[in-house]
Amino acid sequence: MTSIAPGALPRVTYSNTGEDFSGVHAHLDAVIPDVRSRLLGLDRPNRIGGADSRDGDAFDAPCPIDRRVSLGRFVAASPAAVDAAVSAARRAADDWRRLGWERRVALARKVADAMEAVKFEMAAACLLEVGKSRMEALGEVEEAVDLVRFYAGEMEANGGYEKPLLRANPKEETRDVLRPFGVFAVIAPFNFPVALSIGMSISALIAGNAVVFKPSPMAGLTGRMLMDCVMAAGLPDGVFNLVCGGAETGAALVGHSGVDGIAFTGSHAVGMAIMRGFGVGGRHAKPVLAEMGGKNPTYVTASADLATAAAGMARSAFGLQGQKCSAGSVVFVHDAVRDEFLERLAATATSFRIGDPAGRDVFMGPVINRAARDRFEAAVAAASAAGSSIIGGRVLSGGLRDHGDYVEPTIVTGLPDDHALHRDELFLPFLTVRTFSALDDAIRRGNAVPYGLTAGIYAQDEVELDLFLDTAEAGVLYANRASGATTGAWPGIQTFCGWKGSGTGSKGGLGTWYLPQFMREQSRTIMR
Ligand code: UN1
User: Fold this and answer.
1) Mean of the per-residue pLDDT values for the chain?
2) Same structural domain, 387 and 414
3) From the CA of 14, how far away is ligand 1's center (Å)?
C-alpha cells in the first residue's frame, strides 16, 4: 500500500492527461490483486424485497481479461423472481414517496458515501469485469459518485420541484408538483456498469420511485456491489431490488404490467423495441428514458492543431476498446492535412499498449466477448473487401491473449463514401476515415446517420467552429479537446442527450433536466 491515505489521492476523471497518478497506481497495485483473490468467484445472489434470492438459473460470468477466471456465480432471475421484485417494489413505493424528497436526498448522499468508501475496490472489480484500463475504471467510479451527488443536489436546488402557480382569485391557491410514477425498471449495459447503473437508478429513487435494477449479465459483480452500497446506506427494503440475467429476465421485466417506467441504456434495436412495446404498446403510454448508442463524427479542419486532434481522436476511438456509445468512430479530415493527421494518429494508436488492463501502462484491454471479436473480424474483412487500407486490424494471440479477445486499434481509410462501416455502430476500436474539402459538406455527411449522440471538431478558425456548433446534429458537442474528441462527459459539466436514433427524449442525462423525467406533473388547486 502507499504511504498516502487513499482518500488523499488525486481524483481520476476521463479528462486527466499528464497528471501525476503514481500514488493512485501504487495503491491500485495492491487493491487489484486483493480484489482478484477476495471478491471473484463468489456466489452473488439477487436481492428482492430485502432478502437474497436464488430463484432462477445460476450462471458463471467469465472475466474477459482471462476467460478461465470466473467473476462469480450469478442468478438469471426467473419470471417468477422478476414478478416478486416488481411486487416488492410496488409494496415499498408508497412509503418511499411519502418519506419526502429531503430524506430521500439524504439517503442518496449516503449511497454516494458508501460508494466512495469502496471506490478503489469497485474500480478494480469494474476493471476485471469489463476489461477497462485503470484510468477508465477509476474515472467511471468517480463519475458514478458524482452522478449521485449531482442529482441529489438538483432535487434540493429545485426544492423537490414544488412551485406555486398563479391565482385566478385571492381565495384560490394552486401548486405545481412533480410526483413519481411508482415502479421504475432500470436496464443497464456492460460498458459503464457502475456509472450508468447508478445514474439511472438513483435518479428514479431520488424522484420517489421504487426500482427493479437489471445489470448486464456480464456485470453482475459491480451490480451486486452497488446493491450492497444501497443497503449500507439504509434504504428501506424493497425500494431497490436487483435481478441479474440476460434477455429472458429483461423480457419478463419489460413485459410486466406492474412496471410504470423504464430507464434503459443499450442498443438502438433494444431501446426502440422497448419504446414500441412497453412505451406505447399498452393501454396508455409509459415513460421510456433510453440512451441508445451512436456513430459519432469528428471533423479535423485545415486550421486544426494536429497534435491535439490526433491525441483526442485516438483516446475517443480506442479508449475502452471503442465500447462507448460516445466513442468517436468516424473522422472527417480536410484534404490539406490528411496525411500529416493520419501519420500522427497512427503513431499514437500503435503506441498504445494492449494487454491485461491491470497493468499500469496498458491503455487497451480485451473487447468484451467472442461476439465482439467476431464483429471485429467481420468489419475488417468487409473493409478489406472494399479495397480500403487498414492500419491494425489484427486479433492478437499468444499468452494471456489466447484466453481473451484482444484486438488492435484499427484505422480504415479509402472506403467508399456510402459504405455501411461509416454508418453502423460497431462498438469496437474501429475508426473509419473520410476526407473533405468543404466543412459544411462534411458535417452534412456526418449528420446523415441514424444517430446523434456526440460530435467533435478540431479547428482554430472561429467561423468553422460556429458552423459546427450551428449545424452538427448531436446532443453533445466538443471542440479542440486533447482528452477526447467525442468522449468524457461528466455530471454537471456536460449533458448527454441522444438526438435522433441515440435517444428517446429531448432531455439528456448528467444535467439539469434529467431528474424531472422520472416524475409526472400534477397541479393542485384548492379554494381557501
Ligand atoms: C457511454 O458512452 O456508453 O461521455 C456512456 C462519456 C462517458 C460515458 C458515457 N460519460 O464518454
Assistant:
1) 97
2) yes
3) 9
- Give residue 54's pLDDT: 98
The tens digit of pLDDT for each residue in 40-85 reads 999 999 999 999 999 999 999 999 999 999 999 999 999 999 999 9
* Cross-strand partners of 381: none
Residue nearest to atom 9 of ligand 1 (CA): 326
* 239 plus 310 within the same structural domain: no
| Site to substitute for ligand 1 among 313, 426, 494, 496, most atoms within 8 A of C-beta | 496
Contacts of 143 (CB under 8 A, 6+ apart): 13, 14, 192, 195, 490, 491
Question: Given a cut of 50, is residue 223 above it in pLDDT?
Answer: yes
Tell me which of 111 and 13 has the higher pLDDT.
111
Looking at ligand 1, which atom is closest to the CA of residue 143? 10
In this structure, the residue with its CA closest to atom 10 of ligand 1 is 489
Instruction: Specify if 423 maps to a domain.
Output: yes
CA neighbor of 205 nearest in space, from 237, 245, 235, 243: 235
Q: What is the mean pLDDT of residues 384-391?
A: 94
Total structural domains within the chain: 2
Per-residue confidence (pLDDT) for residue 1, from 0 to 100: 46
Residue 227 has pLDDT above 90, yes or no: yes
First to last CA, the chain: 66
pLDDT 10s digits, 415-435: 999 999 999 999 999 999 999
Q: Which domain holds residue 351?
A: 296-490
User: What CATH number has the domain bearing residue 461?
Assistant: 3.40.309.10
Ligand 1 proximal residues by C-beta, below 6 Å? 191-192, 324-326, 487-489
What is the C-alpha separation between 359 and 368, in angstroms, rounded? 18
Q: Which residues are designated catalytic?
A: 291, 325
- What is the pLDDT, as a whole number, of residue 3? 59
Q: Do 150 and 98 share a structural domain?
A: yes
Both 324 and 276 in one domain: the answer is: no
DSSP, residue by residue, 328-389? EEEEEEEGGGHHHHHHHHHHHHHHS-BS-TTSTT--B--BSSHHHHHHHHHHHHHHHHTT-E
What angle do the packed helices 119-130 and 134-157 form, to 10 degrees?
A: 120
Q: Angle CA(90)–CA(93)–CA(95) in degrees, nearest 5?
A: 135
CATH of the domain at 125: 3.40.605.10
Q: What distance in angstroms lies between residue 318's CA and the mean position of ligand 1's atoms?
A: 13
Q: Whose CA is nearest to atom 6 of ligand 1?
A: 488
Closest C-alpha among 343, 335, 367 to residue 354: 367
pLDDT > 90: what percent of the chain? 96
Average pLDDT score over residue span 207-222:
98
- Residues 329, 205 share a domain: no
